[in-house]
Amino acid sequence: MKHLIYGLLIFMVMALPPVSNLLESIMIVHMHMQMPILVVSGFIMGRFFQIYFPVFFNKWNENGFPGILLFCIIMLYWMLPRTMDEALTVQSVQIFKFISLPFLAGIPLRDSWGKLSSNAKNIIIAVFTFVFIVMGIIYIFSPEQICNNYLIVEQITLGWGFITMAICMMIYLAYKTSINPEEYE
Amino acid sequence: MGTTLKQSWKEKADQALGASPEDATLSKTYLFVSFITLLIGGVLGLIQGLNRAGILELPSWLNYYQVLTAHGILLILVFTALFTIGYFYAVLSHNLGGLLPKARKMAWIGFGLKVIGLIFVIVPIIMNEASVMFTFYPPLAAHPVFYFGLVLLVVGVWMCAFGAFIQVANWRKKNKGQHVPILSYFATGVFVLLFFSSIPVAIEVFMIIPWAIGWVETINVMLSRTLFWAFGHTLVNIWYLTAVSAWYVVVPKIIGGRRFSDTLTRVVIILLVILNIPGGFHHQIIDPGIAESVKFLHVFMSLAIGFPSLMTAYAMFAVFEKTARKKGGKGLFRWFNKLPWGDVRFLAPMVAMIAFIPGGAGGIAQSTNQLNQVAHNTLWVVGHFHLTLGTTAALTFFGISYWLVPYLSKRVLTPAINRLGVIQTIFWSAGMIFMAGAMHWVGLLGSPRRTSYTTYFDNATALSWDPYLIFLAVGGTLLMIGVLIQVYAVIHLMFFAPKGETEFPIAEEEDNASKTPYWTERWGMIIVIMLLVIAMGYVIPLVEMIVNAPPGSPPFRPW
After folding, report:
1. Do B535 and A161 touch (CB under 8 A)?
2. Which residue ranges does the record assign to the Cytochrome oxidase subunit I profile domain (chain B) (predicted)?
């Protein structure tokens, strides 16, 4: 129960108009802070649903792949510039953002991550690394404003956010492949 | 199996017999040069304080800003770095069964690079070619040789960091599944911070060099300042983490107690490592060119660093009370009497901790935008870091020296030197109360920092600062006496004290201590999270500063 409370608490704080207005006023914070925190709130709540609805998860997410696929689809959807614009201008899309990220990305991620093999996890991280590099290049080098609501400099900032996160993930993958934990543990 | 057995015997023998002579020489050299630096830096500090109070006229060949730059660089960069490295290499040697020849060699090369770098840095300052103060960011431009010296200092630090990493990794391979001993864990955290925080300053220096030589005409000042403070603020926390290592591990042993939770200690280290580097922004809280919303978000990052400090304060006083009550201490506060106040190894770090209460609170005040506008660039700031570095870090380092130096030199701390240490601590505390207290107060009245003595054409406000500046000079004089006593004590303990064995004091965990989770050893993960947090902190302002860069500044040499 406490997982549900903690997750909902984060979710509710994120939904407060001054908080969401502040976070959405900066493009990179919108995509790389508000959205991941919403996913995290769902990830925390996920434990509650796993405990109270085990049959559902066993039936629909037996090996973790359906869940991680759903997570990837939702994440990729919210990486599109247009969806961010719509979230700011169309109220129903904003509501969809607040529902999709915690409940359709955070919760499935919680349930799937533990079920995936180590290799599958690394592949998922590698895929996201690749996507982040591509998105980073697009956002940095696009000569046009891709989002109506944000200036070009914010777009470039977001691009560098993607690239730095991709670098972090590459370091993680390099660490995973070059260091054998059995030598130390 | 054979190797493991041999290793464990070697470790036991090393722990029983003290540091190996080669490892001891390394640490002693670092500590000796560190305290000589303290002496020179202290003398410069006194000259500066007397001059600033309007009491002492400097000769024509020496100006206030030269003295200020040398005092800052010697004490902030050199004294602290050499002490930290000397101390932690002694820790690694003691904890991990002696230094590997490779690690020792790297530390020696690092030492050589740092000494050469220091000469390169100091000579231009003496020649009045580099009065750019310890922050050395543009638009003030020094002689290029000054920056070459900084490069060598940074490379020297990197050598020591990698030596330490090799040492720790080697121990972990030979002791699979075990936790790195707690002091070596602190050392790992400190060297991780030293390495990663010196990357931005290295980039800054490589931007400055072509500008100082004249190959490029202008430089992006905002970018340079930001890169500097990513390092500058982390350096503060490197001293702090070094001091904290002694508080958590050494002080409990000296008062006859046990350590507080091992897990909490390691979590504090991890948090300090992860959260630290973006904290640099609170030094730029009134800089132009950074959006207010970004500064607001950065307040969270800055204040987050306060959280592990509050955990530390709780842990330390819990240990004190528990130990004192075991010894029969009673009452709400009377148990304080049971603590060994006459033992300098306890007294110095204890005063250091107490100083951190106003020091830390002042830091939180300065991280707050509106309050910072009152104190920014006034003597308040100088008072603040004389409390944090000058007292919290330095006094803990002094406290450490009273057991570390005799341990390394196979001598003992005599009651006479202990008494001298207590007197030194009293001088230091009184000096800091006068000096840092006066600096804080006169800063609130508007007296600027980094400014030679002036009455601004006998302006009434400026004249009203004078009485406080006299207190500053009095405090500085007391501190100079403290420096002399401290350096004498270190040299005595290193070369002249009676021969004997001194213990390396490491407190044990409680008997019923809970098991520390193994994830705390996964430094790869910790570093990746740290890099993510750095990216969170720096991507927005750096892109803004680079993409919307102003025309840039030519070099300035106003002295």
Report:
1. yes
2. 3-497
